Amino acid sequence: MTQPAPLVSLIRGDGIGPEITDATLRMLEAAGAALRFEEVPAGAGALTTHQDPLPALTLTSIEKNKVALKGPLSTPMGTGFRSVNVALRQHFDLYVNLRPALSFPGVPSRYQNVDIVTVRENTEDIYAGIEHFVGPGRSAAESIAVITRLGSERIVRYAFEYARRHKRKKVSIIHKANILKMSNGLFLEVAKQVASEYPDIQHDDVIVDAACMKLVLFPERFDVIVTMNLFGDILSDLIAGLVGGLGVSPGANLGEKAAIFEAVHGSAPDIAGMGIANPTALALAAEMMLHHVGQSDAAGRLRRGLLACLADERLRTKDLGGQANTRTFTDGVCASIGQNG
Ligand code: NAI
Question: Has residue 189 got a pLDDT over 80?
Answer without folding.
Answer: yes
